[in-house]
Amino acid sequence: MADNGGGRGLRKPVFVKVESLKPGTNGHTLVVKVVNSNTVLQKGAAASPHLRNTRIAECLVGDDTASILFTARNEQVDLLKPGTTAVLRNAKIDMFKGSMRLAVDKWGRIEVTEPATFEVKEDNNLSLVEYELVNVVDE
C-alpha cells in the first residue's frame, strides 16, 4: 500500500450517509443499496473510438437517509445490479443539468458487500433537487 504522508498508515475511512452529500464534494465512502438501474448509453463498434464499448447506466442507490442517482460506467454497471449492497470508496458528486449524481472514477472503487438490512429512503431523492449554478464573483 502506498503511504500517503507522514507515516501514519492508512486513515480509516469515515462512512457518510447519503443525505449529507453536497454538490462539488468528493472523497466519500458510503454503503448503499441499489434500487434500480437504467442503461442510458450503450455504444457498440459504430461509435467514435473513444466511446467504443462504453456502457453507462443510471442506478438509483441509497441508504436509510436518502437516495441519489449513481452514474455507473462499463464494469461498474455489472456490479451495481438492483438489490446489491455496495461500498463506494472515494466517490464524488458530479453535477448534471443542475442536479447531483454520485460517481466513482478511477481513483475510487466499488465493492459488493453483504446485503444491508436498511430500506432505501426513496422519497428523499437528492438527484431530484435542482441547484442553481451560482457563479461567485469577487468584487
Describe the protein's topology.
Elements: E1 28-42, E2 55-62, E3 67-73, H1 75-79, E4 85-96, E5 99-103, E6 109-112
Antiparallel strand pairs: 1-2, 1-4, 2-3, 4-5, 4-6
Domain Single-stranded DNA binding protein Ssb-like OB fold: 21-112
Organism: Sesamum angustifolium
Protein name: Single-stranded DNA binding protein Ssb-like OB fold domain-containing protein
What does this structure look like?
A hairpin with a 4-residue loop joins strand 2 (55-62) and strand 3. By secondary structure, the chain is mostly beta strands. The longest helix has 5 residues, at 75-79. The chain has one helix at residues 75-79, and strands spanning 28-42, 55-62, 67-73, 85-96, 99-103, 109-112. The radius of gyration is 16 Å and the shape is globular. The model is unreliable at 1-7 (pLDDT under 50). Strands 1, 2, 3, 4, 5 and 6 form a six-stranded antiparallel β-sheet that branches. It has one helix and six strands.
**Mass-distribution shape:** globular
Please tally the helical runs, counting DSSP H or I stretches of 4 or more residues.
1
**Topology as a string of helices (H) and strands (E):** EEEHEEE
**Helix/strand-derived class?**
mainly beta
Oligomer: single chain
Q: Rg from C-alpha positions?
A: 16 Å
Low-confidence stretches: 1-7
Mean pLDDT: 87
| Biggest β-sheet strands, sense, barrel | 6 strands, antiparallel
Helix content: under 10%
Features of this protein?
single chain, mainly beta, six-stranded antiparallel sheet, 1 helix, globular, disordered N terminus
